[in-house]
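3.2 Worked example (two chains)
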Amino acid sequence: MAVKIKAQYIGDDTVELVHGPTGCKIATDLPEDNGGRGRTFSPTDLLAASVASCILTIMSKAAAKDGLDLAGASLEVEKEMAASPRRVARLIGRLVLPAHLSAAQKEKLKACIRACPVSASLHPEVKVEVAEA
């Protein structure tokens, strides 16, 4: 299924993104470490956010299949940039799963990390490391 996203530069280092099917909007800004003001997500911040969102979404589908409540699960991702060429070099994630889940249930959900299509779409040099906090 193809989804159109319209990107428009609106000035002041800001790009507005519009999700075609819904009309939802997100704006991006240049990060401070690249000459911007960092007022909101940068494009590479959205990449890190996409990985976190994707992993939790895949986990939620697996949890629902097993009748598990995943509410409260979280994944904090830290993005590290490389300088030359400027690109995302590494994403380090800290996963928190609900305490009521058993060790076996947590392990099954952690297997979903490898099933994330966003992570699978990244260049192999981009390291994605997720550990349970």
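3.2.1 Second chain
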Amino acid sequence: MAPVKLIRPRRFGDDRGWFVETYNREKYARLGVNVQFQQDNHSLSRSPWVLRGLHFQTPPRGQDKLVRCVRGRIWDVAVDVRKHSPTYGQWVAAELSAENGHQLFVPVGFAHGFLTLEPDTEVEYKVSDLYAPECDGGLIWNDRALAVAWPLDGAAPLLSDKDTRLPTLAEFDSPFVYDGDPLSPLPSEPPIP
């Protein structure tokens, strides 16, 4: 089963708007997201081209993430950083937006980051462990070895000071273990719980 999953929750709409179940433990477990989430995070990025990432938490406090965009649009990226994985250093990405309602599940062993594509973009995500600063890590967004295709359209990204000082993949000694599931391309028709 693919480790990174694109999920498209079903929306029920009428002339008033719509309703969506954004997480259901039993339904998501059937899709391979069998995680007990411990914390919810919410970010606001005022400008387009805000780039957050590529982040992870190392063991023993690794975090699975279930990411969704609740306002605006983002380009959401997951990079395989599991030692000895045949897809080590490879990435997948998807556009998540308030309009499409898609979610990206990013398991432990993957660096995660996103680029905002509109002003006033808000992102919410669930994580499977609490924030542990001693386990906080990441990779530099523009590592040539990763060659992530950020859709910047010639713009310079807005980065935190921390994100400008992250190491490259070559400088990173991964503590993450390959579990036997290589990274797969995201499906054109995402699963619907």
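3.3 Remarks
The chain has one domain: 5-164.
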